[in-house]
Write a structure and sequence with these properties.
This protein has 124 residues and is mostly helical. It has two domains: 70 residues, Arc Repressor Mutant, subunit A (Orthogonal Bundle), CATH 1.10.10; 35 residues, no CATH class. The chain is 54% helix and 6% strand.
Amino acid sequence: MILRIDMTSDIPIYQQIRNQIVFGVAKGDVKPGDSLPTVRQLANDIGVNPMTVNKAYALLREEGIIVIDRRHGAQISNRGMNGNAFDPDFDHRAELLVSEARMKGASKQEIKKHFSDLIDMVYE
């Protein structure tokens, strides 16, 4: 799995790492049981402080997306695959995105089409 990190983005690097791993799991690039690079290895690969990667891994662990143990390191969990996908936090984030698009002038039909295209992209 190749992570695409934008060092000039306003999105914190740890969040970009988290998001890229989530995208990888959703697209099937990484599967439950797959190992992730060590904190040090990933930090060296993308040129960031190990604490940044550690923060991303901690967030992923809290969300149930990865499990971490001393013998096997960080691995993709299968627990996160069976959770409630549409919890209140998901609804809040999706509602905010729709609101932002509407505020910028997008019509209901444009928003539906855009979301449909994004869904198709993830399920390719």
